[in-house]
Amino acid sequence: MSRPYATDEQYERWFMADCCRCGRRKHKAGTWPDGYVCRTCSDHALRIRGTCPGCGQQRTLPGRRPGDSAPICTTCAGFSQSFACTRCGHEGKLHGGRRCTRCTLADRIAELLDDGTGRTHPRLAPLAEQLLGMDNPLSGLIWLSERRSTAAALLRGLARGEIPLTHEAFRTLQPWRAAAHLRELLMTCELLPAVDKQILLFERWLHEHLTSVGDAEHAQILRRFATWHVLPRLRTRAETRPVSPRGRRYVGEQILQATALLAWLASSGRRLADCTQTDVDTWFVEQANSNRVDIRAFLQWSAKTRITRRFELPAPQNPGTAPLSERDRTVLLGQVLAGEDAPLRSRAAAAILLLYAQPLSRITQLTIDDVVHDGDQVLLRLGDPPSPVPSPVATLLLEYLGQRTNMRTATNRESRWLFPGRRAGQPLRSDTLSALVHEIGVPATAGRAAAIRQHVLDMPAPIVATALGYHHNTTTRLAAESGTTWSNYAPGNHGR
After folding, report:
1. Nearest Cα to 410, choosing from 428, 425, 422?
2. Which residues on adjacent β-strands are paired with residue 64?
3. Three-state DSSP class for 456?
4. What element of type H or E holds 32?
5. What separation in angstroms does the CA of 11 have from each of 15, 31, 395, 476?
């Protein structure tokens, strides 16, 4: 590589050296008392903070004590340079103007959120405070760097009024991942109304899908179906519990199958209003069982809105998943409790699933406040009253509580989620947790089915529903399928 200012030999002599810390020949970051140091080792050393064994002060410890190489402060190590920020005095990695990472991040945020008057846009002040309070300011500085200009451009657009502070505006922004992350931050600091994440993802996908539909009449029908049937049901579900990724994919399949049916009719020169019972029967014969299930909602909606006549639809076939035997469930639970080599997070989630028949979408919504200490007993709040936790599972849960990861939110507070996710203030995704549970050999659906069936055999269905947070109709149906005899018992107190 040619360099106009120096030959290769001069460049090697001036800028490269053997690092005194790692021994590799790399770019020189500076000359320290123990020799040349590379940028990687310099950044690593400047992240070490603690009590200096030489002077006893709480400082950054980039130096090394002769003899045992213990980390010591710059004064005790004899550094000729200072790593103190010229603005706040904090010691650490310095950037332009010899300012620390957090002060540099503050300047960057102020620059991006400038409304044109030299000050941060007043309405975006909570967002600026949240970004500045993040646990690792270096990650924020990288996220907002010019080389990764996507997030920077979005913040500039918000500050200048080019992007309205509405969910509708964020629905069409690209790239969608950066826009989705910023929207979650805005909801966290209450600058946007809180909306279920899966609904937002579905709305974005729906907009892109409708744009790709070539036939204007088909796009209009699909938009009406989504607006007046699919989205209201999603929002109603979100009022009682979060929508799972699986639920979002299911309604997406309804839209896709409706699109496929309209294209199938158009291939023979017909519109939806021309659809007959024969067409429906032919479609059901040609399609897989999952597609038959997904198209039902669209056909029922089209008949209800009088676009088509009413159709006779075959009863849905749901083969389901065969539950584990009680013996297999017990063996799996024992393996989860004894499997010390498996990740603690996966074991804790699997234990809750196998013992209390909780779906993963509900497990991800548990908080640390749902693990209740009542004297020597540990309770798990799944319904009313909280369920007692057996000793081996209680030990596992308490051990996991002390070793949770991703415990910091965007506002630098401790996350209250029992299973925190990587997103700001968000729990772990249920599909991510499902993959983690499957990795340790626990089939989520079959394991939960076995657990709930055993519960309705051991206790009356209404008690199971109240204790585990199920609907009483669900537990009653499962009890009837399991052949339980609790419903044959006479009411009243049978004790002496």
Report:
1. 425
2. 71
3. helix
4. strand 25-32
5. 6, 17, 60, 79
CA distance 192 to 203: 16
How many residues comprise the chain? 496
323 in the Ramachandran plot: left (φ > 0), alpha (ψ -120 to 50) or beta?
Answer: beta
| Tokens, residue 227 | 């607006």
| Residue 90 identity (one-letter amino acid) | H
With vertex at residue 121, the alpha carbon angle to CA 117 and CA 127, rounded to the nearest 5 degrees, is: 150
Question: Which residue ranges in the chain fall short of pLDDT 50?
Answer: 1-2, 409-412, 489-490, 494, 496
Rounded to 5 degrees, φ, ψ at 445 are -65, -50
Token digits of residue 52: 């200096």
Rounded-to-integer distance, Cα 41 and Cα 61, Å: 13
Tell me if residue 417 falls in helix, strand or coil. strand
C-alpha 195, offset from chain centre:
14
SS3 call for 167: helix
Q: Which residue is listed with tokens 């749901």?
A: 318
Model pLDDT for residues 36-95, shown as the tens digit of each residue: 899 889 989 998 999 999 889 999 999 998 888 899 999 999 988 889 999 998 998 899
Residue type, 45: A
| Domain architecture of the chain: domains with CATH | 8-98 (no CATH), 116-188 (no CATH), 197-304 (no CATH), 326-488 (1.10.443.10)
**Residues whose CB is less than 8 angstroms from the CB of residue 153 and which lie 6 or more positions away in sequence, other chains included:** none
Residue pair 352/360 in contact by the 8 Å Cβ criterion: no
**Residue linked to tokens 């032919």:** 282
Bridge-based pairing of strands 377-380 and 387-388 is antiparallel
What one-character-per-residue DSSP string does 361-378 give? HHHTT-BGGGEEEETTEE
d(CA 1, CA 14): 16
SS3 label, residue 27: strand
Cα separation, 145 vs 226, in Å, equals 39
The whole-angstrom separation of Cα 279 and Cα 463 is 47
